[in-house]
Every structure is written in C-alpha cells, then in structure tokens.
Design goal:
About 25% of the residues lie in helices and about 25% in strands. It is α/β, with parallel strands linked by helices and about 325 residues long. It has one domain (about 45-315): Alpha/Beta hydrolase fold, catalytic domain (Rossmann fold, 3-Layer(aba) Sandwich), CATH 3.40.50.
Length: about 325
C-alpha cells in the first residue's frame, strides 16, 4: 500500500469519527511545560503547550522565544505550518527558522497537527469546514497566535505565516481568512484557497494543479511570497502560478527576471499593484523537487541547494506591517 493509499484510508476513517467533545466546564487544561533549552548554540529558549478549540479538538505547539523579549519592545512573530509526515521539531530543524529568530530577535510559533485528525500529520486544507474564518483547524491555529500575543511581547502588526505543502495550503487559507492577523505570507509548494473540497479533489489538485478561488473584490490584500520547484512530483508546479493568481488582486502588473542563487536558476516574477507596491513574488526554482529550498539536512523534505527559502521569506516579511492589526485579539 502506498503512502497515498494510507492517507486516503486514514482520513476516510477520521471523517467517520465523532467530533471531539470539549473538556468539562472548569476542567484544567494541559499546562505549558517549563522553558526548555533551544538547539545548541542558540541564546533563546522555547516552550511547549496545547491549545483546544471546541468542535475541533486540541493541538500541541512549540514557541521559540528570543532572548531578552522585553514587553517595552514587542517583537515580530512568524507562524510556521509543517507539511505531511512532519512535526514542529522536524520543521524547525529543516527550515532553520529558530536560528534566524535567535539572531534577529523574533518569535517562531510551530503548531503541530493532531494525528487523531489526520494520521499522516497533514493539515486538512481540503475540508470545507477548514476553508472559512472562525471554524475548524484555522481557528485553532489562530487561537494559538492570539495566545502568544496575550502571553508574550508580540507585535500584533508584525505577524507572518509560512508553510510547506499541506502547511502551504493551510497558509493560503490563514492569509485569506485572517487578514487582520497576518501582515504577509510565504507559501512553499502549496495550493490556492479552496483548491479542493474532498479527498479525491485534493489528490487531483496536487497532481494536476487547481485554480482555487480568486481573491474576492475589495478583500484585504495579504502580500504573498510563493516558492515552487519545477521538478516537484507531489504538488504540480502549475500550482505555484495558481497560488499567486488566487492571492493577489486582478490588475497587477508583473515583471520577470532570471537569477542564479546557490547553484540553481530561478525564474522570479514580481507582481505590482496599480499603486506600485509589491503584492506578491513567485520564485519558480528550477531543479527543485518537493522540498524546502535551501533547507537543512537535519529536517525532512529539505534541499540544501538553491535559494534559502527561510531567509527570502524574512526578507519579504520585513517590507510589511499590518495596518489592520488590533492590539487585542
């Protein structure tokens, strides 16, 4: 049986299960564990916790906390959504985002998919209930971000989201449905919002590409950076174009150039709004398969060659502050 068959069987059995019940009123939640040392060489630390959402269930998370996080000096936060068969620790090791958060002084939040909701650890981006605001897994993830804002000196105007594969598809949904929460997004080997609404549709979208739903007229823009490998055999390369098309408003002008980074050629396309600001960038990385570009071998689904997707994501994020952010969520 292939991993695809296992995923189909696992998710099918999952959909037949009863919806998880919330804990009894007044029941204690799983406490956050004491701060643990970060990987060797880092000055910051991380904490682990669990978040619960009625009608969805719970998920664990890992939060990297930079050194000297001062309430008088709020820091940015990057939300990182892992792909299938991954977990927060694996994703952190492969992307190296903790090291960047340590050197540049920002928080990094890694939600972990509960294997009871998906045995392969995939975010269920193809489920209708996860494709709108205030419902399902997106609301569970958003509640983790709000919790970080309440408990730590996080700047609500500098919160960003990035993800790989199924995490990239969920990133598109988070950016689309929570523009008040996120200033910008980075989608790596993902799919556009509502690219599928069923398990068969999900596999079809991954294999052949899917347009998804375009950005509604007048909907707030969350600028997006898209990374896609042209040798990706898991998520069709056409989805790179599909994602950027669905995430930016119509009428954007594009400018394309060919660049070389770390031994790989990249076709870089920038999309400008009528006002001249950058609405999005598409990095089509030639020779890259289904992996985090420029990633570290300590994690899964990484390729050390090519542009460093983590650093490029941060470069993109630094350009944006969220004008819609609220101090209290």
């Amino acid at each position: 049986m292939t991993w695809i068959d296992k995923l189909k069987n696992g998710v099918s059995s999952l959909l037949r299960r009863k919806r998880p019940s919330p804990p009894p009123s007044g029941a204690p939640r799983t406490p956050v564990t004491p701060p643990a040392p970060a990987p060797a060489g880092l000055r910051g630390h991380y904490e682990r916790g669990e978040e619960f959402q009625p009608g969805v269930g719970s998920s664990d998370y890992r939060l990297f906390i930079p050194i000297q996080a001062d309430p008088q000096r709020p820091r940015a936060l990057v939300l990182m959504l892992h792909g299938c068969k991954q977990n927060p620790d694996d994703f952190a090791a492969g992307t190296g985002m903790d090291q960047l958060g340590d050197s540049e002084g920002f928080f990094v939040l890694y939600p972990g998919q509960n294997r009871k909701r998906n045995p392969q650890g995939c975010w269920n981006w193809f489920s209708r209930r996860n494709q709108r605001r205030d419902w399902g897994e997106p609301e569970l993830i958003a509640s983790m971000v709000r919790k970080a804002i309440r408990q730590h000196p996080v700047d609500p105007s500098r919160i960003y989201v990035a993800g790989l594969s199924a995490g990239g598809a969920m990133t598109a949904l988070m950016a689309r449905n929570y523009p008040d929460l996120f200033a910008a997004a980075a989608i790596h080997a993902g799919l556009p919002p509502a690219a599928a609404t069923s398990i068969p549709g999900a596999f079809s979208a991954m294999r052949r590409g899917a347009k998804g739903t375009p950005l509604p007229e007048g909907h707030p823009l969350v600028p997006v950076l898209v990374f896609q490998g042209d040798r990706d055999e898991t998520v069709h390369p056409d989805n790179g174009h599909n994602v950027i098309s669905a995430m930016i408003p119509p009428g954007c002008q594009s400018a394309q150039q060919r660049i070389d980074q770390q031994g790989r050629e990249v076709t870089l396309t920038r999309y400008l709004t009528p006002g001249g600001s950058i609405a999005g960038e598409l990095w089509m990385v030639h020779g890259l398969g289904h992996a985090w570009s420029g990633g570290q071998p300590a994690g899964s689904y990484t390729d050390p060659a090519g542009p460093d997707a983590s650093r490029e994501s941060l470069r993109f994020f630094r350009q944006y502050v969220n004008p819609r952010a609220r101090s209290a969520h």
